[in-house]
Each structure stands twice: as structure tokens, then as C-alpha cells.
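Closing statement on the pyridoxal-5'-phosphate sub-project.
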Amino acid sequence: MDIKANLEVIKKSFPNQDCKLIAVSKTKPLSDLKAAYEAGIRDFGENKVQEILAKQPEMPADTRWHMIGHLQSNKVKHIAPFVQLIHGVDSFKLLQEINKQGKKIDRIIPVLIQMHIAEEESKFGFDRAELEEMLSSKEFAELTHVKVIGLMGMATFTENADQIRKEFRGLKQLFEELKGRKLPDFVDLKEISMGMSGDYKIAQEEGSTMVRIGSAIFGSRS
Ligand SMILES: *Cc1c(COP(=O)(O)O)cnc(C)c1O
């Protein structure tokens, strides 16, 4: 895999050149992360806490670590001190735990709320009713050590581009709707994390500000 060449091709193909690229390095060896770093990448996405903890001390200090997968509440404390952004906040319980850990170390932790936009049952995330319930609760208004900077979503795994586009468009619409609403000050919606190797172009056309790309950069995962 020529990681540098892959990155050049991918970046050139971005419909939106301002869209941020998170290089998803899960399961990949440090040598691959270093090659991407050498090619200018600073934002890396991982989905396992143990793996972030193993890689983080080995990478330069200005590497930014994004937690992109499902995160168990009991593991938040390990990444709370340094994580750049937690993309997959898929329950209020998890958000409250992140707030609690942030408070302990006096750090305001940036997060995205993960919405369930796919047809599949298996993908994590809030549905609309759960989101509304959280946003209107007293406990939500009282959070002090998180900053909600946007939304994240994963489209259905399908060849049907119209379906994917529809799901991304729905997430963007929700984002705009929430931006027009009166919400607590710690909600400052700027980012939409949507798009992966197979659908990042559609995602950018539909308003993504951050794409999470793994296999197109590093090759397929075994
Ligand atoms: C693995 C993963 C990606 C990257 O997937 P690719 O298809 O390899 O680009 C993006 N987002 C999440 C949440 C992932 O778990």
C-alpha cells in the first residue's frame, strides 16, 4: 500500500476541499500511521480504547485522536485526558459519563451525537425520539464538561447511492434544524461527521464536514 499516494488521490477527489479527513487506522500497524503522519495527516480515528492507548504514546505529540466507534462507558476515563473528539456518543448515559470524567480532570471534552440514520438495526445511535427526550431533559441542561460540536451518522451498507444520499441528507436536515433551535450554550453545532471509504463523495455533496476514511487509505482490514 502506498499510503501517501492513496492520500493524494483521495484528497484530490474531494467534492469539498475544506472537508476534514480523519484517517481511520484501526487494526493497522504503527508503521502505517507514521506513513500517513509523514504525508501530513494529523487526525486519526480508532474504535478501540485499548488500541488508542497502545498507539498514542508512540506517535508525535501533535497527533489528534478521534474515537469513532461504539464506546463503553467504563472505558471513557482512559481516553478522557487526550481524546480530540468522541464521534460515537450513542446514548445519554454515555454522554453523562463523558461529562463526569471531564469534570474529574477539569477538561471540557468535545463530542458528536451519533444519530441512527441507516436501515440496519445493528448500527448504533439515537433515534429522533431519544434525541428529543435527551435535549428536553433537565439533566442535559446541567452538563458542564462536554461540548457538543455536531452530529455523526453512518449510512446503510448498500450499493444504492440514492439510499445513502437520502440518509445523509436527513442528517444534514436535522443538523440545520437543531442549529435553529435554542439549546444550552455547550451545544455549538459546527461539524457533521459522515462518509467513509465507500460513500465519502456523496457525504460531502450532502454537507459533511468530516469524513472518516480507512480502507481507501490503508487497504482492507483482515
Ligand atoms: C471503520 C470505520 C470507518 C472507516 O471505514 P472504511 O470503510 O474503511 O473507510 C469509519 N467510521 C467508523 C465508525 C468505522 O468504524
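Residues 24, 26, 47, 68-69, 154, 196-198, 212-216 surround pyridoxal-5'-phosphate (CB under 6 Å). With this model delivered, the sub-project is considered complete and its resources will be redirected to Aim 3.
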